Amino acid sequence: MKCISVRQPWANLIASGKKTIETRTWRTRYRGTLAIASSKKPAIYPAGFVVCVAELVDCRPMTPADADFAGCDWYEGAWAWVLKNIRPVEPVRIKGSLGIYEIDYEIEGDFLMKGTG
Fold it and tell me: 117 pLDDT exceeds 60?
């Protein structure tokens, strides 16, 4: 499963459904299931865990109208990663990384299960 690390408190805001756009200074062509992991720093609970799974449905230049959904002001060069079908999961500790990375888990209901392959 693809995963991306997000700093707290934004990872928790995504998991709660209050933040439906993640912003980055780079774009991605990836579309599909994306696990959201909370970065280890700052050490806001839960730090270093996958907290939810979402569908990444679009990646486009951020507009000022995206600010409320992103939980931040518009900024030059920002890309809006549009998230739908956000589902909190029981937190699972993982080793994070930069960019989009692979984790060996599959979603089953409200749980991430260690992959079998």
Answer: no
Report the domain count for the chain: 1
Tracing tokens 């984790």 back to the chain, one arrives at 103
Q: Is the pTM of this model over 0.90?
A: yes
Find out whether 54 and 86 touch, Cβ atoms under 8 Å.
Answer: yes
CATH number of the domain enclosing 20: 2.30.130.30
Let me know: does 82 contact 66? Beta carbons within 8 Å. no
Q: Domain of 85?
A: 2-114
Tokens of residue 104, six digits? 């060996």
CA end-to-end distance (rounded Å), the chain: 11
Does residue 24 sit in helix, strand or coil?
strand
Task: Estimate to the nearest angstrom the gap between the alpha carbon of 90 and the chain centroid.
Answer: 15
Query: What's the rounded Cα separation, in Å, for the pair 56 and 83?
Result: 5
Instruction: For 20-55, write each residue's pLDDT tens digit.
Output: 999 999 999 999 999 999 999 998 889 999 999 999
